[in-house]
Write a structure and sequence with these properties.
mainly alpha, Butyryl-CoA Dehydrogenase, subunit A, domain 3, 25 helices, globular
């Protein structure tokens, strides 16, 4: 690769001049104007005296044309919205980008209203006419998501009420999520260092208390971090309660008694699959708990604390510069899949990645897709650690998945979150396993094994705690707003259960610091991570067992992730039943292998 690599991304190819430039403004105007035309066409179609009930011929063809146009506009809006996500993430103080983000949300609400009119037409058809509609040119290819849409529309409010709810959500539901981003983005954590007091962003502070090799520095930074979130707890509890209240009111009006109905539907997953997965996680968590207790001894602590979970051990304190990490990732991908390696090389060389450690950036990391440009952009704050390299590989896995899906009709690129984590988890594990094999010393191997083991803790314990907290929050939110102190109590209870009481210090304010609880576009942004993590382990084992030609089979599986349920995907490509515990037990066993190896490498401490 051409070096040195840039630590900042290039957004200019999408909309030269940014949100104030002519290309962005023109696309917004185009979407708005075209949406108006589609709306007028749907009004005429649905107000016709004969309607669509028992319709055939021209009315169905006109409806198909409207659907095709809405698909096109949805892809264009996705392109614009992805840009505003990137622009606001790279600089949380960018007011113009924030305003543009609000504009894309408003456009999204407008398209949502049109889709609700389409739902109205879908519901008016007989099953016979529906089958005829799906057989029309242009509809055949996207029959699965359209059929899914019709089924869910039958469980929703009337289309006009759903459209109204979408309108109200812009300045209600979604606005509270945006408020969280503004508050957390402006926060600073004052930390004492050798050069005096430094004001860190929450992302910088989290990197320090998570990864700094000095336990005292981690502890002090973590305490300051907790204090910073506590100062904002009242405002953030208000955000969370309003988001939860809006969601519950919407569900109540739709007749949904189960808080998990929407997230399960979004993930195309059966409850039996979710329960089988969590049962296997609970059975296998003991290995992770033993790993945490042993790691505390390695770190010289009596018992593990929350700020010790991601702490470096062995040679992990050594710096892994960005260029070296990039080279390692590309080489590792190439041994598994040359197509993955080509994508990663392109991402590094063409500046698809924002990795710089600087103030003003949003916390966390993500990979977002630009469907019109068939490119992705990756956002994170790289910290020159082995864990940072694994995260980089994880996001590049998302980018590869996006590339595979970019060849399909846009609706088939909508992949459930759990399946969206498949390629990313697999890519991350490839890099971790390859790094372990290349380790030149026990200390280096220990560091790599630890990195993999602590990721198992994240998905088997941390995510489980978030899931249990959110279930408890919604149970109590039904009776009224939940105050900040009670939110912290619920989080503490969930963490103690998930971590099997292993830690001496927990993070009760995780409900405030974790962005995922405030994402209004995706309810229960937690269990799909564990699903994807474990499913990715299962897919990797399957792919490696396929022998010659596995890359082609793997790509075929990824292509189908937007075209069937998770259960059907697993059954068709791998021959497994996800509603049964066997697959999940094997996946958990594979996930905790690193924790077991850590225990073997450090067994001398038990003497």
């Amino acid at each position: 690769m051409n070096k040195p690599l840039s630590l900042t991304w290039d957004l200019e190819p999408f909309f030269p001049g940014g949100v104030e430039g002519a290309p962005f403004k023109q696309l917004v105007q185009e979407i708005r104007a075209a949406a108006g035309e589609v709306g007028r066409g749907l009004d005429q179609l649905l107000s016709a005296e004969e309607g669509l009930a028992g319709a055939s011929g021209e009315p169905l063809e006109r409806l198909a044309q409207a659907v095709e146009k809405l698909v096109e506009l949805s892809a264009k809006l996705h392109e614009a919205a992805a840009y505003t996500v990137c622009a606001t993430a790279q600089d949380v103080a960018d007011e113009k980008a924030q305003a543009a983000r609000a504009t894309t949300r408003e456009l999204g609400a407008g398209l949502n209203r049109l889709w609700k009119r389409v739902d109205e037409a879908f519901l008016a058809m007989s099953d016979e006419d529906w089958r005829a509609f799906l057989a029309l040119p242009g509809m055949i290819e996207i029959a699965f998501p359209l059929d899914e849409r019709r089924r869910l529309a039958r469980r929703a409010m009337s289309p006009d009420k759903e459209a109204l709810a979408g309108d109200l959500a812009v300045d209600g539901y979604h606005a509270w999520g945006e408020m969280y981003n503004r508050i957390s983005g402006a926060m600073r954590v004052e930390v004492e260092g050798e050069d005096g007091v430094r004001a860190l962003s929450v992302a910088q502070a989290q990197n320090q208390w998570s990864h700094h090799p000095d336990r005292d520095v981690r502890r002090k930074t973590f305490l300051r971090y907790e204090e910073a979130w506590q100062q904002q707890a009242g405002f953030l509890a208000e955000c969370l309660n309003h988001i939860g209240g809006f969601r519950l009111a919407l569900y109540r009006n739709r007749g949904w008694d189960d808080i998990l109905f929407e997230p399960l539907a979004d993930n195309r997953m059966r409850r039996e699959t979710l329960e089988a997965m969590w049962d296997a996680v609970a059975e296998g968590a003991g290995v992770a708990a033993r790993y945490l207790r042993r790691k505390a001894k390695v770190l010289g602590a009596g018992a593990p604390a929350y700020y010790d979970v991601d702490a470096p051990v062995g040679a992990a304190g050594r710096s892994l510069e960005y260029d070296r990490a990039a080279e390692m990732i590309v080489d590792t991908f190439d041994r598994f899949s040359p197509a993955m390696a080509r994508l990663a090389r392109k991402a590094f060389e063409n500046r698809w990645i924002e990795a710089e450690d600087r103030p003003g950036k949003r916390a966390g990391g993500f990979c977002t897709h630009f469907p019109l440009s068939r490119q992705s952009r990756i956002f994170l704050t790289y910290d020159n650690s082995a864990g940072g390299a694994a995260t980089l590989a994880h996001e590049l896995g998302h980018a590869f998945h996006n590339l595979v899906l970019s060849e399909l009709p846009y609706p088939l690129a909508h992949v459930p979150m759990g399946l969206a984590e498949t390629a990313s988890t697999l890519a991350e594990k490839l890099v971790t396993d390859a790094s372990k094999e290349m380790a030149g010393s026990r200390e280096e191997r220990l560091a790599i094994v630890d990195d993999a083991a602590k990721r198992a803790v994240a998905f088997l314990m941390n995510i489980r705690a978030r899931f249990e907290f959110e279930l408890a929050f919604y149970r109590e939110r039904r009776a009224g707003a939940v105050p900040p102190d009670r939110l912290s109590e619920l989080m503490l209870e969930a963490q103690k259960e998930a971590y099997l009481g292993t830690l001496e210090v927990y993070h009760p304010l995780l409900w405030a610091s974790k962005l995922h609880f405030y994402l209004t576009g995706t309810p229960f942004y937690n269990f799909p991570y564990t699903f994807g993590y474990l499913f990715g382990h299962g897919v990797l084992d399957w792919a490696l067992g396929e022998g010659k030609g596995f890359e082609e089979r793997y790509i075929r599986l990824l292509r189908d992730t937007g075209a069937m349920t998770v259960e059907e995907l697993a059954r068709r490509h791998m021959g497994v039943d996800l509603t049964q515990p066997d697959f999940w037990r094997r996946a958990v066993a594979a996930a905790v292998q690193a924790a077991e190896e850590f225990l073997e490498l450090t067994e001398d401490l038990e003497a």
